Each structure stands twice: as C-alpha cells, then as structure tokens.
Amino acid sequence: MAELHDLTALEQGAAIAAGEVSSAELVEHYLERIAARDDVGAFVTVTADQARERARSAGPGAGPLSGVPTAVKDLNATAGVRTTFGSAAYDDFVPEVSDGVVLAMEAAGLVSLGKTATPEFGSPCYTEPDGRPPSVTPWDRTRTAGGSSGGAAAAVAAGLVPLAQGSDGGGSIRIPASCCGLVGLKPSRGRVSGSPMYGDPVGLATAGPIARTVRDAAAMLDVLAVRRPGDPYFAPPEPGTFLAAAEREPGRLRIARFVEPVITDATVDPEVRRAWEDASLLLESLGHEVEDVPVPLGRDAVPFFEVCWSVLTALSPAPPGREQLLRPLTRWLGDRGRALSAPEFGLAIGAVRRHAAAALEQLAAYDAVLTPTLAVPPVPVGALRDDEHPERDFEAQKAFTPWTSAWNVTGMPAVSLPLHQTPDGLPVGVMLAARPAEDALLLSLAAQVEAAAPWHDRRPPGW
C-alpha cells in the first residue's frame, strides 16, 4: 500500500476532496518526515504551528491543491515568519507582509510547512548558506542540490513535501530540478507577478513550481499565475488551466536543438550529451521534427547580462552595520554593480533586450527548443564555491550552467525534465523551452514526454 508521501500532490488534493485523508493528517505526516529525514539541508525554518492552524481550515473548494502541504523559498517575504534571504545579515528579519506569490499559494489553500534554504539573495547556483548545512541532492548526499532553489528541490526530492515554490533569475528552478531528479518550470516573463516589491527591473526573475510530475507543476502554475494591477509586464492569460494543458496532446511540433554552451566554453559531460541525444530520439519517436540550429544567443551578450546580474546583487544590500556578514561572492558582485553608472546599466538592459529579440527572431519558426539543463551531473558540495577568489566562483558557476540563463534573457518559458540517470544513479535533466507566453504548449509537450518515459516511480536512497 502506498504511503501518503508516495502520492502526487494532485492525488493528495483529490484524497482530501474525497474525505479519504485530511489536510491535518498530511501536515503531521510531513512534519514527522522533516523532523526525521531532513538530512538534505531543505528547511531553514519549520512553521509547524502555523501549518497546523491552516490545515484545520483547509479543505476542498479552493482548487485541486487545497489542503496540500508545500513550502516557500526563503527569498519570499512571508508575514510573521522569519525570512533571511539566505543571508546571515538578515538572520532575525520578520516581514510584516507577504508577497504576491505567498498570498497566491495561501488563496489556493496550500499549507506551507516552512521556509526552504537558498544561498545569499538567491545569487549562486549552489545552496551553501553560511552557518547552515548545504542543500544536497538525496540521490547522493555529498553532492549539491543546486541553487538557488536548492532547499525547495531537496525537500521535494526527499519526500518532505510533495511540491514546492522556487524562483529563477538565471536557472535557479531548473538547476536544482536537474540535480535532484525533478520537474522544474520557469514560467514566461510576466506570467507570475513580482508584487509588491518588483525588485527586478530587468525582468530576468520569476517564481515557478518544483514538483515530481508535470501535472503537479502545471497545477502549481495555475496557483502562481496571478496578475496584479501594478505588474509592469504580463503574459496573456491562458484561456483554460495549465493543468488542462498538461492533459492534452501537443500535436506535431517543430523542435530546434543545440548542445553548444551559450555563455562560456564549458565542457559537456558525456552523460549530459547522451541525455540530450536520447531526448532528441524520444521526441522524434513521438512524431516531432527535431532540427539542429546555431546557438541563438551570442557570447557577446554575456557581458551585458553580467552587468545586470551585478546591479541586481547591489540592489540587495545588507542592513546598515551588517555589511561584514555578507559572503565574499555577494560583496564582489555588489561592488561590481555599484561601480557602474546609471547610463551603463541602462545601456546594458537595452543590449540584453536587443540580443533577446535577435534570439527570438531566430527561433520564431520553432515550437520548442531542446538543450541540456547543466553541463555536468550534480557536483560535490564546495566544488563551485570559492570564497577566496569570488571571480573564480562566478566563472565555475557559468561553466556548470551554460544554458539556463538564455531563457531568462528571452523571457521564454523553460522546463527541466528528469529524463536521464548516470550509471551510478545521479540525475541528469534535459531542458525544453517554448515561445514567450506559450507555457501551455510547453506543459503539453512535457507531459507527453513524461508519459512516454515516466520517472515518478524513481526513489532516491532514504525515501
């Protein structure tokens, strides 16, 4: 007989609606698992009392995920709950208001069990916050869970919650999804509101779902895809639900593919290339036309992206008097950002948008794009981090994830799917992207791929 945590999030929601289990029972089940099994660095704060209180009033009616346990990334302000942004400089910060993502999850009846680990201000692609255990993949607890949504991915992969919210400004949902053998979806620019802070003036970052199945991810996107009146840009509303999109066939599609790294001369691991080739063959077997294309985003776009990334880091300062608590990488990036003039920043934004436009024009004839997610399988903890030489740290990150940020630049939706494992059992994700605002088509295609090569029954050690 299946344990509660073996059920998908949608199966748990259906069981609540049918009266077969209560939200309170699920909450207690997962709280017990967190207490006994969080050896993966998933949670920084567990909100057991708040979760129990919400579970008592949760139930059917608010949507298919109503009453289902989840978690919130520690970058998202949550009223009355310590929110550290992954930084020792904010170790005692408690927001008075929740952001739009948290409010949307609460309105859908989801029950958060706490805050998941993230690196400082969500900047690195590994999750090793100072003073706390690193987030690791449960497939090999000596290796990184990725970042910046590393705690969220570790929690889902270890069965501590059925699905979780992440955020992605350069790959921060898809990277940990690949490391942890999960589905990680970065929605289109403007699909999910950045209310009320709107802290990303470039438009790189968005919230999105991390789940074990495409259908669960689609249902979570239905929750998150809320338009707020003050949003500076927005994707057109989906006529139906994203869950419905994941339950229909995509039709015959034209799919571009490339494997050459976008942002640096990274070495592509043979297992990664094999995963990409196998995915190509799978897509062809499903009736799609797969074509090789040149890399659509030139290397000359990288310096402009780095300008934007540095300024975004500089926009997250430490509270006065606590600057010494920031990590070396954060200080280095912040110093780079502060050294730039306003015209230099403005010119970089314009250049990034022109490069994005050129890439979108090149890919306009294609319904989807196939690349690897990461250049190598999940690396050992500490392999990327270099506090003594943050510039080397930054270059190592670029070599680890040389494709994901391309779709943040273009605003395209992109999903990492856990299609491959190495001979020693490490997960390897493969990434599909679609035209801007075509999240529904991307989910239809991803669900078709999952049905042809299912992964849900894979279980990491300690499950």
UniProtKB/TrEMBL annotation:
All copies of domain Amidase, residue ranges: 25-443
One matching Pfam family: Amidase
PANTHER family recorded: GLUTAMYL-TRNA(GLN) AMIDOTRANSFERASE SUBUNIT A, MITOCHONDRIAL, TRANSAMIDASE
Organism from which the protein derives: freshwater metagenome
GO-annotated molecular function: catalytic activity
Protein name per Swiss-Prot or TrEMBL: Unannotated protein
